[in-house]
Amino acid sequence: MSGCRRTYFLLAPKEGGEHDWPPGVRRFARPTQDECLGVPAPEGSTYRLSRRAGAPGIGEFVDAEPLLAVLMAQLCQTRE
């Protein structure tokens, strides 16, 4: 991991709480509001956290299940 640098993913309200995220992933959530997951950046810098458009509409959030599968594969690899 590269210090406190993270890439952020916006999830629908309450969707992130339904999963056990791998170590290093930080969940930011308030009841009835969008959730944000901070994933450790593997290397280098990340962009500043900002929203470039209005609030997302229905279907514009990141789907938590495929994201969880990718993060588990990348962050929880077993060492041979």
Automatic annotation (TrEMBL):
This is DUF397 domain-containing protein.
